[in-house]
Write a structure and sequence with these properties.
This protein is α+β, with helices and mostly antiparallel strands. It has two helices and two strands, in the order H-E-E-H.
């Protein structure tokens, strides 16, 4: 992720998959999710938004 627009897009994708992220860190590219979040659905939504997902 290179900019705040990327953070917003990834946040929207995760929220659209049913889980609002606790935080998205632009510098590290990491997202913190609440316990019990559907990781597979969120990863798929983020990929559909055009971003890569690392385990």
């Amino acid at each position: 992720m290179d900019c705040d627009g990327c953070v917003k897009a990834v946040t929207r994708a995760a929220t659209g998959a049913g889980t609002a992220p606790l935080s998205v860190d632009l510098k590290s590219g990491e997202m913190r999710l609440p316990e019990g979040a559907d990781i597979a659905a969120i990863a798929k939504a983020i990929q559909r938004a055009g971003f890569g997902v690392a385990p």
